[in-house]
Amino acid sequence: MKDFFQGIASLFEDVLFIPLDALRALQDDSWWAANALNFVFVLIVFVAFFYWMKQLKKFDESGEENKSVKAHSFLGKNADLD
Q1: DSSP state letter for 72
Q2: Residue 18 sits in the same domain as residue 46
Q3: What's the pTM?
């Protein structure tokens, strides 16, 4: 059983972490290049956030959403306690 877990550790350390080791070595030469992947992820999050906000605004302006207190069952239960 010990060999199984050592094999998994070897797989990750010797094979799957090669790109991350390359990024760590690249950081000594260029901080911007080493963090380019992070910048891509941040950009994707910003685009998704603004798309989500645009969709929320579109549905809010169309008046499709039921905004009453009892629109959702879990909100209605809390409203009955007051």
Answers
A1: S
A2: no
A3: 0.60
